[in-house]
Amino acid sequence: MTVPASPARDTFALTREKFSLPEGVRYFDGNSLGPLPKAVQMQAYITTTHEWGDGLIRSWRSAKWNTLPQRVGDAIGRLIGAAAGQVVACDSTSVNLFKVLTAALRLRADRKVILTDASSFPTDLYIAEQVARLCGAEILNLPVSEFPKFLNDRVAAVLLCHVDYRSAEVYDLARLTRAAHRAGALMVCDLSHSAGAIPCNLDESEVDFAVGCGYKYLNGGPGAPAFLYAAKRHHTDCEQPLTGWFGHAAPFEFTPSYAPAPGIERFLCGTNQVIALSLLNRSLEVFDGISIEEIRTRSLELTEQFISSAENRLAPHGFVVASPKDSNVRGSHVSLRHPQGYAIMQELSRRGVIGDFRMPDFMRFGFAPLFNTADEVEYLVDQIDQIMTTRAWDNPDYEQRRAFT
Ligand SMILES: *Cc1c(COP(=O)(O)O)cnc(C)c1O
User: Fold this and answer.
1) How far is 89 from 224, CA to CA, in rounded Å?
2) N or C: more exposed end of the chain, with fewer CB within 10 A?
3) β-bridge mates for residue 61, sequence order
């Protein structure tokens, strides 16, 4: 007798169908570059041929190009727990971080410290360093666990990556935001590895500002626009530094002096990336009708399965699970560490199994709830097991990069 599939499985079998995944490939890198939704292929044709080709400049209105940043922003807002009117999709994560972190420091002009963790994604550290220089502030680098102890009246903003890009550890955004607020500081959060995979509850947690990627779990395509969240309570007071005409209260009046738009639009800068935003807009439809909680449940099933198989079958080959075993604090990817990790990833790739590698020895596998399956997880473990048993990684064609540490 066959067991009827649970409704959740039906949901995710249907979402998987919505992606154009190459034959013979098992893809565990949706956390780095989401795969192509089929509807996006069609949208690319519509946007270029009809909207641009036929509509020309008229499409700013007729195809609603002018409101794409807000419409896409609201669709992302649903996935990160933000009510409408607080998110825009534009620019890159790095550029958006520059905007919101500067805005946060200006809201706390009498304070001169940005508190962050040196293991944050490097672009965040690079941007924070410049923001600190421009605002006459300094960076205090500490492990996230130490943040509450070092929050005081000198800290203007906490810059937190919600999920660690190497280990997948999830930090308690609500608790850390409360701690920051108690000290009078603002919370600026990078959701690149959580948006679309785990709940972020921005409004409920009273996060002040957030940014994140459009091309990871949101599947917007290579170089997709990023997003930016600013809590409504800050809209009238905050000033972001990239004051382009699209952030102006009345861009088409062409006045010589700048006046910021009253709402979230003040965080826009130049002309929006119409083609890329149209594709991201379409890709987000894969999430229609599914709650982020269902997605989270599915994600945890996949990562649990991988961790328990890896502990049973891969630990004897010297693999160490470098992601939290406690599902409350684990994101949607799992990293294994192995001294031959780089060569092993190359052999996996030759076999059509795609994950990625992060220095010095992290083999990182993303489990994207919308398309990865339990069968694929087993296949991945089988392949790694075989590669170790047959020493297929020991191939002179592969760069055998070793751990530094
Ligand atoms: C991927 C990622 C980025 C990417 O930034 P871009 O400017 O969009 O290239 C930033 N921050 C984090 C935490 C990331 O994981």
Assistant:
1) 9
2) N
3) none
pLDDT tens by residue, 367-389 = 999 999 999 999 999 999 999 99
Number of domains, the chain: 2
Q: Which of 19, 121, 367, 398 is catalytic?
A: 121
* CA 192 to ligand 1 centroid distance, Å: 6
Q: Determine which one of 27, 215, 229, 398 is catalytic.
A: 215
Residues lining ligand 1, Cβ inside 6 A: 92-94, 121, 123-124, 161, 165, 190, 192-193, 213, 226
* Among 213, 215, 332, 362, residue to substitute to test ligand 1 (most atoms within 8 Å of Cβ): 213
Last residue of a domain, one of 243, 263, 287: 287
Taking only the tens place, the pLDDT of each residue in 194-248 is 999 999 999 999 999 999 999 999 999 999 999 999 999 999 999 999 999 999 9
Distance of CA 130 to the CA centre of its chain: 22
Among the candidates 247, 272, 287, a domain finishes at 287
Cβ(240)–Cβ(247) under 8 Å?
yes
Q: How many residues are there in the chain?
A: 405
C-alpha of 104 from chain center: 21
190 labelled catalytic? yes
